Amino acid sequence: MKLIGSLGSPFVRKVRIVMQEKRLDYELVLDNVWAADTTIQHSNPLGKVPCLVMEDGGAMFDSRVIVEYLDTLTPVGKLIPPNGRERAEIKCWEALADGVQDAGLLIRLEKTLRKEEQRSQAWVDRQMAKVTGGLQAMADGLKDKTFCGGTHYSLADVAVGCALGWLDFRFPEIKWRADHPNLEKLFERLSERQSFKETLPQ
């Protein structure tokens, strides 16, 4: 399998971590979707990463779709419960973490792609409210648990860890550790895993 992505994308990182936790072999193909010579549209018509290209040439995109598929390939390191409310809760954690990253990405694009006089502070404020609200929801949901889903490491932790790591990378001015010490403890625990160490955003 080939994974098309970038080293700075938290969504690509999520897939890479799952690949490593599941001990799956793949080739990472780097592509800057904002560059004039990007070829991502050949595999994903939406022009986004990550995109997983299978052995038969078929392509799969959207990180949530990809990681769900990967979790079915081997029983090693199961990250998503098979069914029921527990499964929905883990996927809800993933949606929350992805939503924080989506909002942060919209802020970043507003500040990097638009000229200063064209930027909307109201838009930035609206997206930042989603980031801070999402962080609060994560902290409230985590409480004093070892992992997001309770006692077992899951996709929820992968997603939340990627979101927190990406905020450190792109928004160091957001002091989420001071506001949410339980998230800091979780992040420190996750950062000790080899899959997190080897996929640091850059």
UniProtKB/TrEMBL annotation:
Record domain GST N-terminal: where: 1-78
A single GO cellular-component term on record: cytoplasm
Domain GST C-terminal span(s) in chain numbering: 83-202
InterPro entries found in the cross-reference section: Glutathione-S-Trfase_C-like, Glutathione-S-Trfase_C_sf, Glutathione_S-Trfase, Glutathione_S-Trfase_N, GST_Omega/HSP26, Thioredoxin-like_sf
Domain of life the protein comes from: Bacteria
Record PROSITE patterns: GST_CTER (PS50405), GST_NTER (PS50404)
Protein name, entry field: Glutathione S-transferase
